[in-house]
Amino acid sequence: MSLQISPEAKARIEAITGRYPNRQAALLPALHIVQTELGHLSTEAQALVAAQLGVPATLVREVVSFYEMFHEHPEGQFHFEVCTAFSCHLVGADALVDHCKKKLGIAVGHHTEDGVFSLMEAECLASCGSGPMMRVGDDYYEQLTTDGVDALIEKFRAIAPSLNGHHYEKAKDGTMHVGPVKGFMPKLLPPTPAPAPALATKQGDTTEATAPPSLAKA
Amino acid sequence: MVHYPPKERVFTKNWNTPNGHTLDVYKQSGGYEGAKKALSMDPGAIIKEVMDANIRGRGGAGFPVGRKWSFVPKDSPKPKYLCVNADESEPGTFKDRYIMERDPHMLIEGCIICCKAVDAHSCYIYIRGEFGLALQRMEAAVAEAYKAGILGNSVLGSGFKLDVVIHKGAGAYICGEETALLESLEGKKGQPRLKPPFPAVEGLFGCPTVINNVESIAGIPPIIVKGAEWWKSLSTTKAEGGTKLVGVSGHVARPGVYEVGGGLTVRQIIYDVAGGMRDPSRPLKAVIPGGSSCPIILPSEIDVSFDFDAMRSVGSVMGTGCPTIIEEGTCIVRFLRRTLRFYAHESCGQCTPCREGGDWLYKVLDRLENGQGRETDIALLENVASKIEGHTICAFGEAIAWPTRSYVKKFMEEFKDHVRLGRCPFGPLAIAPVAMAGDVATV
């Protein structure tokens, strides 16, 4: 077999198996490790994992096809997962997906010809208070606008050659981005002038009349 | 007396402290005192304290945490396990991720206390694979804890052995269902198991297992330190003690995660905590109380205490406690189509009514929204939904049926309009980014 898992990855998988009472339980973590190393989980890669853990290859295939994060085919180096769940839907996720499609010239579920970008509609990524948003590698880009997406695409195009064909997971120094695209903070609605000081509607409520500091700066 | 912020911050006290996710900061704020106390307590006394505090499962079902622990057999010769359900993926729910990113040690301390109470020596924290930062922070926190002797062969020098393992999920909504989570942890497809046997008796690897949500476990340490009476004093509702995290999203002026004392009404959460509607010219149209599977409620129904019991009086549930607020001008049919696309996609495929029915509902909604709806379609939605509900192994069937049936019932005219007009009467939704407010500092 030409395809190989590196000895380091093999050792990491071996170490992880020690955390569970049986080797099969390490299947998901092992697949994550192999996918990160090889880019995607081809039938050959799945067989390697099956052999190392001593589980049937059919089981590995079953698991790989069940979970959203495992890919049997290569995806773009920058895999855009735009959250389209209902909270993001309310603040314009559909229009954002349309913009990405137009900008990248691809349909959802496809990748660009140069293999740099791929686009997917993701389900809720638990960033409902800061939508619309998308996940690229391990990074969260929140409060997105069309300008913000354009800036990101440009930035990614510039750093793509330095990845040597690998997928983008996180920055080289291991840091992750969570928040809006820097320099492209959307114009947000002005905060309501004075936050309601105390909660009305309740008799005998004696809450203090000052606005909580975290609200004041919002 | 209820207000925001609560009388005392429990979950969010370190969220905006620099390096709040590190052991040093956590210890400075009284961290691991609860674990120390619990390690010298009798397991029965721990469970009693948690039961008295009346803390209920924060993952959606609201099952009393202490009672769940008490079901674990004490005389079983098998090893026992704790699984923390950190597979937060119910649309509209975004609170557990922030606990793990901003105060991971709180969760670890809760794990120690729970494991001591049920005599478990292995704990698995099943974290959603997409949560890059939460995974990184939790792994770092566990490593810190091992190094400091907080985890390992002798937890805090007590002789009690505990191993905590961070397990990365791989993206499947159904793995948030407790038995599907167990299957997934064992290295299989996440397909729910038939109950009984319940996990407390036969769970992970066939052994007695406690499964709790992140927020439920993270709330335990302060209860042990300060007592059940104190915890109950943070809430004004009898339904549940303590403070809770409320993640408000949608068309409000200040969406975000807020820590509030229990017993606020839905109206207070929308208008007082989250700043009211974002656009005063577009009043409130509807509220999804706690994640996509909850039945929808109308503006006339929001004067109800936001707790597990009171929400039933308006035919809904509190769910995960993260309400999504919808303004006038939003198309409910399109919104439901979005929700149903999610369920059709995420069905694990095990039970026919759910696997087939979810997709049928989506297709019917799609044609309604596209102007090809038929007169009979509205009755068809109700018909299909009623045949999914109650006919599946897990509650996923209800999660499809509840929204469908309640949206159709409460917005019947809107569904009829789509058929009558042969088109959707609403315009597209513009990109309108929202900024996180509340207890999570904006970056």
Uncertain segments of chain A are: 190-218
* SS elements, strand count of chain A: 5
What is the overall shape of chain B? globular
Largest interchain contact:
A-B, 82 and 91 residues
Oligomer kind: heterodimer
Helical residue percent band of chain B: 25-40%
Largest sheet composition of chain A: 5 strands, mixed
Order of SSEs of chain B: HHHHEHHEHEHEHHHEEHEEHHHHHE
Radius of gyration of chain B: 22 Å
Radius of gyration of chain A: 22 Å
Spatial order of the strands forming the largest sheet of chain B: 7-8-5-6-9
Q: Please state the overall shape of chain A, judged from the principal axes of the Cα atoms.
A: elongated
Give the number of domains of chain A: 2
Mean pLDDT of chain A: 87
Report the end-to-end length of chain A measured between terminal Cα atoms: 58 Å
> Uncertain spans of chain B, ≥5 residues at pLDDT below 50?
none
Task: Give the CATH H-level superfamily of the largest domain in chain A.
Answer: Glutaredoxin
Describe this structure in words.
The complex is a heterodimer of chains A (218) and B (443). Chain A is of the alpha/beta class and 218 residues long. Chain A folds into two domains: 7-66, Orthogonal Bundle (Arc Repressor Mutant, subunit A), CATH 1.10.10; 78-179, Glutaredoxin (3-Layer(aba) Sandwich). Chain A is built from eight helices and five strands. A five-stranded mixed beta sheet of chain A has the order 2-1-3-4-5, with helices on one face. In chain A, strand 4, helix 7 and strand 5 form a beta-alpha-beta unit. Chain A is elongated. The N and C termini of chain A lie far apart (58 Å). With 443 residues, chain B is α/β, with parallel strands linked by helices. In chain B, helix 3 packs across helix 6, helix 5 crosses helix 7 and helix 13 packs antiparallel against helix 16 (396-410). Chain B starts with 22 loop residues before the first helix and ends in a 5-residue tail after the last strand. Chains A and B meet through helix 2, helix 4, helix 5, helix 6 and strand 4 of A and helix 5, helix 7, strand 3, strand 5 and helix 12 of B.
